[in-house]
Design goal:
The protein has a five-stranded antiparallel β-sheet with strand order 1-2-3-5-4. It has seven helices and five strands. It starts with 5 loop residues before the first helix and ends with a helix. The protein is α+β, with helices and mostly antiparallel strands and about 200 residues long.
Length: about 200
C-alpha cells in the first residue's frame, strides 16, 4: 500500500514551511516516516499510518494506532508546554496535564508531539536527529563501548520504564479509558497466536 506525499500532508498544517525536502527514514515496519526540512535547515519528523503495515502491505492494521501514539506522546510530554495545535483537543490536553506530574528520568528524552491529524492519520514530531538505535549502539560489531556507559544508559532506561509502569498503575482508572487498544491486541493475536496454533 502506498502512502501520500509527506509534502502534501504537511501543506495544511502549522508546519507547511517544512517543504524544502523530504527524506524517507528506515528502520521501522509499521508506519511511513520522513524527515522534513525547511529552507533554513530546521527539521521535523512526519509519521503516517496507512491501513496496512508499511513493510508488509498485505497485513492490514488499524490506523487507530496513531491515535494511541498521540495519546501516549501527550502523556509523556512532561513539564514542556503542549504544542499549540494540540491545545484544542480536550483529551490530549488532559493527558498532558496528568503526565506533567510523572517523575522525570535524567538523560531519557521523549520526542515532543507537535501536530496530530486523526482524520488523515499522521503526526508531526520533534526531530531528535540522526541517532543510532540502541540495539546497534550496543552491538558487538560496533567499536568497543565502555561497560560503564552501557550500565549507565541501561540503568536510566530501566528507571524510566519502571517509573512509567508505576505511574500507569497509580493512575489506572484514568489511563485505562484512553489506552485500551483493542485493534492492536487483535492484530497481535492474529499475527502471533494464530501462527503458534497453526
Amino acid at each position: 500500500m502506498s502512502a501520500p506525499s509527506p509534502l502534501a500532508l504537511v501543506k495544511d498544517t502549522p508546519y507547511a514551511d517544512y517543504s524544502a525536502s523530504a527524506t524517507k527514514l528506515t528502520g521501522g515496519m509499521i508506519n511511513f516516516v520522513w524527515r522534513l526540512e525547511d529552507a533554513h535547515g530546521r527539521t521535523v519528523v512526519l509519521k503516517y499510518a496507512s491501513e496496512a503495515m508499511s513493510e508488509y502491505p498485505n497485513a492490514p492494521m488499524s490506523t487507530e494506532r496513531l491515535e494511541f501514539e498521540a495519546r501516549g506522546l501527550c502523556l509523556l510530554n512532561g513539564p514542556r508546554p503542549l504544542a499549540a495545535s494540540l491545545q484544542q483537543t480536550p483529551h490530549l490536553r488532559k493527558l498532558a496535564e496528568l503526565g506533567a506530574r510523572m517523575p522525570q528520568t535524567p538523560g531519557v528524552y521523549v520526542p515532543r508531539l507537535l501536530h496530530y491529524d486523526g482524520s488523515r492519520h499522521f503526526v508531526i514530531l520533534e526531530d531528535l536527529g540522526s541517532l543510532q538505535p540502541y540495539n546497534e549502539w550496543c552491538s558487538p560489531e560496533q567499536p568497543a563501548r565502555s561497560s560503564e556507559d552501557l550500565v549507565l544508559i541501561s540503568r536510566r532506561v530501566g528507571q524510566w520504564v519502571a517509573r512509567l509502569h508505576g505511574f500507569g498503575q497509580d493512575h489506572m482508572q484514568v489511563l485505562g479509558r484512553h489506552f485500551v487498544n483493542t485493534p492492536a491486541r487483535e492484530f497481535l493475536g492474529s499475527v502471533f497466536y494464530d501462527v503458534l496454533r497453526g
